[in-house]
Write a structure and sequence with these properties.
By secondary structure, the chain is an alpha/beta fold. It is built from 8 helices and 13 strands. It has a domain of 157 residues: Rossmann fold (3-Layer(aba) Sandwich), CATH 3.40.50.620.
Length: 296
């Protein structure tokens, strides 16, 4: 299932809940380098399926930031908000094949159950005021992560059946992300290790839909001064494009590359030469703090 198509097709998929920060830059740079070093394609997808979390104008800001840092993409930008028909078709298929079921349990109900979903025993007949959940088997789901090694999860014992469409009708990240990767023939996913526990859920979606899975590589996370993951929700500073070369150079250095002082093109040229051998060191790398200028 994890045999990947060729040529290389990578992607960067930010959520428009705010502008990119230094941690986003590290992830985008790694993903871009991984594609460009093998003459592969690199795409951008805006994961805008959760309107309550989105900030108006953030998607355009993200695209301007990527462009300013020289991380240019191939083709047009994919917007998940334009993919509702594809997600609806997938939901119907999963329900028709009994891989998914309607569930009316509330968040409070789940908390009372220790946040462990009991499965199809609580299924309801229709979607009125109900979410759609995907069934999970009781057994390990394993994948070979390039930097984290062999990784296994048992979804049955770590949360159980998971939501693929919310009771408010919005499509869940796990479904949308997995289906977009498959429909776009993404061969390699490079992203932060904070998303590694999403991988078995996305593999479960792809298996149920009989779609091919990409190869995965999860990066160590960039932290703030207190050791917490650098994130928009933690008030991480937005990337400033007026000192893009300096920040790009620091992002490369954070990944273990040489510290280059020069233009955007100079840094990316050196980075592409370094990446094929230098990226191997990420296998032994731990989370690390962002440069001080990236923190509040």
């Amino acid at each position: 299932m994890t045999n990947t198509p060729h040529p290389y097709r990578g992607r960067f998929a930010p959520t428009p809940s705010g502008p990119l920060h230094f941690g986003s830059l590290v992830a985008a740079l790694a993903s871009w380098l991984d594609a460009r070093c093998v003459n592969g394609q690199w795409f951008v997808r805006i994961d805008d399926i959760d309107p309550p979390r989105e900030i108006p104008g953030a998607a355009d800001t993200i695209l301007r930031q990527l462009d300013a840092f020289g991380l240019h993409w191939d083709g047009g930008v994919r917007y998940q908000s334009l993919r509702h028909d594809a997600y609806a078709d997938a939901i119907r298929t999963l329900l028709n094949h009994s891989d998914a079921f309607y569930c009316a349990l509330s968040r409070a109900d789940l908390e009372a159950l220790g946040n462990q979903h009991p499965g199809t025993s609580v299924a309801v007949q229709d979607g009125l005021n109900a979410a759609v959940r995907l069934r999970v088997a009781n057994g390990d789901i394993c994948f070979d992560d390039r930097w984290q090694g062999r990784t296994c999860y048992n979804l049955h014992t770590t949360g159980g059946a998971f939501v693929i469409q919310r009771r408010d009708g919005l499509y869940a990240y796990q479904l949308a992300c997995a289906l977009d990767d498959a429909d776009d023939n993404i061969s390699h996913v490079v992203r932060g290790i904070d998303l590694i526990d999403s991988t078995p859920r996305q593999l479960t979606v792809l298996k149920a839909l009989q779609r091919q899975a990409p190869a995965y590589a999860h990066l160590p996370v960039v932290t703030d001064a207190q050791g917490m993951k650098l994130a928009k929700s933690n008030n991480a500073l937005s990337l400033e494009t007026n000192n893009a070369a300096a920040q790009l150079g620091m992002a490369l250095h954070w990944l273990g590359g040489p510290l280059i002082h020069g233009s955007i093109n100079d840094i990316l040229d050196v980075a592409k030469q370094w990446w094929p051998t230098g990226a191997k060191a990420l296998r032994n790398m731990e989370a690390g703090p962002a440069p001080a200028l990236s923190l509040t």
